[in-house]
């Protein structure tokens, strides 16, 4: 009974502040027009960008070692991110606040540890390693997160304009 009372209080406060909740039809319209972007889609984008950066490094310099270095830098982003996405997707049952937050932080720590381990292993795994090419592959591939966030915010802006029309 107390949860219902607090929900009613929250609804009253939202109406007083000028907040207008979406109707079910408006929410469904937005979901159909703009499906959400999954972690796996961002990961696929990162892998594609990583391949492009590695090919560009190889073609621009004419040296295969530059391509391998840039590709390894991209892998140092993609492999830990894939493990992170897999861990979070398997954790769907943990919907309670503390369990979900703890799981997120654990998988984020695993991702960071694996990234650092891969960077430490790079000189032994890539013959003629170029740290500059590796860094370029790493940074450009990591920036796909920002591109995905930018595209997501652009979609939200279009959704708001769509509702106003």
Number of beta-strand segments? 0
In whole angstroms, the N-to-C terminal distance is 39 Å
Note the beta-strand portion: under 5%
Q: Main sheet?
A: none
Structural class: mainly alpha
Overall 3D geometry?
Answer: elongated
N to C succession of SSEs: HHHHHHH
Contiguous low-pLDDT stretches (5 residues minimum) are none
| Helix-residue proportion | over 70%
- Cα gyration radius (Å): 22 Å
List the total number of helices.
7
Brief description of this entry?
This protein is mainly alpha-helical and 165 residues long.
3D structure, described in words:
With about 160 residues, the chain is mainly α. It has helices at about 1-15, 25-35, 40-60, 65-90, 95-125, 130-140, 145-165. It has one domain (about 25-165). The protein is built from 7 helices and no strands. Helix 4 (about 65-90) packs antiparallel against helix 5 and helix 4 packs parallel to helix 6. The protein is elongated, with a radius of gyration of 22 Å.
């Amino acid at each position: 009974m107390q949860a219902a009372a607090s929900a009613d209080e929250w609804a009253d406060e939202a109406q007083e502040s000028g907040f207008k909740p979406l109707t079910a039809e408006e929410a469904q319209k937005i979901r159909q027009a703009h499906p959400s972007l999954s972690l796996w889609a961002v990961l696929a984008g990162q892998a594609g960008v990583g391949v492009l950066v590695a090919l560009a490094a190889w073609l621009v310099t004419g040296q295969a070692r530059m391509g391998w270095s840039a590709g390894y830098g991209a892998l140092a982003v993609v492999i830990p991110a894939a493990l992170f996405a897999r861990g979070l997707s398997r954790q769907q049952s943990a919907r309670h606040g503390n369990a979900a937050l703890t799981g997120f932080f654990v998988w984020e720590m695993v991702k960071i540890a694996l990234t650092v381990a891969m960077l430490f292993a790079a000189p032994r795994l890539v013959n003629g390693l170029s740290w500059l090419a590796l860094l370029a592959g790493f940074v450009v591939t990591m920036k796909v997160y920002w591109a995905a966030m930018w595209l997501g915010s652009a979609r939200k802006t279009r959704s708001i304009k769509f509702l106003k029309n």
